Amino acid sequence: MKYLVAILCLVFSSQALAVEGGINPASVTTFLLFVMFTLGISYWASKRTTSSTAFYTAGGQITAGQNGTAIAGDFMSAASFLGITGLIYSVGFDGLILAVGALAGWPLMLFIISERVRNLGRFTFTDVVSYRLQQRPIRAISTLGSITVIVFYLVAQLVGAGKLIELLFGLSYEVAVFFIGILVMIYVTVGGMLATTWVQIVKAILLVLGASLMCILLMAVLEFDFNTLFSQAVDVHARKELILQPGSFFSDPIQVITIAITMMCGLLGLPHILMRIFTVPDMQTARKSVFYASGIMGYFYAMTILIGFAAIIFVSTNPDFFSDGKLIGGTNMVAIHLAKVLGGDILMGFMSAVAFATILAVVAGLIVAGSATIAHDVYAELICKGKANPDKELKLTRVAAVGFCLVGMGVSILFQDQNVAFIAVMPLVIAASVNFPILVLAMFWRGFTTKGAVFGGLVGFVSSVILIVLGPKVWVSIIGAESAIFPYDYPALFTMIASFTTMVIVSKLDNSPESKQDIEKFDAQLIASELATDVSAASNH
Asked: What is the rounded CA–CA span in Å between residue 64 and residue 118?
């Protein structure tokens, strides 16, 4: 391990220093410290990761505070920090739609979903839905949804990371993707969920501290007067007062609703987020974890509002950040540019490295979830019918992690010139249209059947792909047509309704013997959930 660390650090440093014009030393230093520290965490975690249970869920022994911070670290991606601040910088108030949509899912997770998911599942969300439905078909459709979401989310993160590091560190795109892939491969294969959890915790702390420092510095410059912040932003922005008004950019209410639905319900169907609920010892700890995560993310998104509006004042009026009339790096880099205004090269370098660390943590969580899907859902449950050899399952988990890393690296290099926004939309829409409806109906509707889940999941999956292709992100941005056939970028409002409707209709029409078993098992599921709740409450007393 120590030799690998040395090689990675040496190669990264030589690549960075070889860039014409040099590189920000603060960003390289911060990044190298993060890499060495987190590789040390992986080595420590490797001594404790000796079973599939430890690999998937860290043995279920993560505390509420640790898990809540890790959940926040898993969800607060570079897209959240850089993308939302860039959107606020561009359009003002309407940029908050993405942040509000993301936050709206957490109360549902806290009060409705987390308890039953923790009580009924072991390692993955597929365990939850297969508790009462027929094992093979439901695991097949759930695996299709999960793998698709994980692969697209992984590729989107790696493509974004490659572009980000190419700009910030001066490395080539291929080298950046290679380093991310190798580091994540080490985190996951060596330390499993325990190492991934602590990487996410460290990343979340760094991101929140960095954003907090930026907000303190910018408010100090503005004498802690919020009126000054917004009035100066209005004065310098091309859209003037419109940046403080809702609906001035997203004028179509359907567009607003479908974006919010995609963010909210897509969150509740993301396999790597749901998997974190199983890393704690009981249901009450799971709820506390989601509560802590909600608080951290609420605070974080509040800071992105300040950073986005401050960037309008300090970045848009600074000619150093523009080349040929265009913002260097695009609007996604406004937070990094603002960091330079507020704290010079040191703060800019620190926030650049934190953005990189953010991507590493998110990718690590995705790889763990993908490995669990392959080794547990497909191999152990589908192929071996619950009788898999534990040692073989653990080995396959690590092999699957390496495979996901290699596939992600290869596809992200092939997709480096593609529309990243398109890649990022796919997993959220599919999660909202396939995983979320199956999860909700399996847990809460007695009449839900396996056939309903399979047909509805397929309708959600196929309609998601078709409408995204016919929408502006593909039909106009990639294919080059003058106008899109389907007018909305985020079609989850329509695809999710189609999925739910199909599931209900097929379940109602299903009179097979298997459907009667599905319905009868609902009562057993309720009893099991209530019993687990009682045991959890008793153990806490």
From this structure: 13
CA–CA separation, 456 and 214 (whole Å): 46
pTM (predicted TM-score): 0.84
Each residue's pLDDT tens digit, 8-24: 443 444 444 344 445 66
Task: Look at residue 234 in the predicted model and tell me its pLDDT.
Answer: 92
- Determine phi and psi for 229, rounding to 5 degrees: -55, -50
User: Is 293 in contact with 72 (CB distance < 8 Å)?
Assistant: yes
* Torsion angle (degrees, nearest 10) of CA 508, 509, 515, 521: 10
On the CB side of 135, how many CA atoms lie within 13 Å of its CA? 11
- Number of neighbouring beta carbons within 10 Å of residue 266: 27
Tokens matching residue 56: 């998937």
Q: Which of 109, 112, 67, 103 is nearest to 289 (CA)?
A: 67
Give the list of residues 6+ apart from residue 56 with CB closer than 8 angstroms, or none. Answer: 123, 124, 192, 193, 275, 278, 368, 372, 376, 397
Q: Please tell me the predicted confidence (pLDDT) of residue 79.
A: 66
What are the b/e assignments for 185-217, b being 16+ CB within 10 Å?
bbbbbbbbbbbbbbbbbbbbebbbebbebbbeb
As a whole number of angstroms, the distance between CA 434 and CA 266 comes to 9
- CATH topology for 2-424 is Sodium/glucose cotransporter (1.20.1730)
What's residue 194's pLDDT?
86
Our CA angle for 505, 509, 513, nearest 5°, is 130
> Quick check: helix, strand or coil at residue 222?
coil
Total residue count of the chain as it appears in this document: 541
Give CA 430 to chain center in angstroms.
Answer: 13
The burial of 464, by beta-carbon neighbours within 10 Å (0-12 exposed, 13-18 middle, 19 or more buried), is given as buried
**pLDDT tens digit sequence for 425-438:** 788 899 999 999 99
Low-confidence ranges of the chain (pLDDT < 50): 1-21
Query: For position 4, what pLDDT does the model report?
Result: 44
Structure tokens at 292: 């802590």
Provide the residue ranges of all domains of the chain, joining segments of one domain with +.
2-424
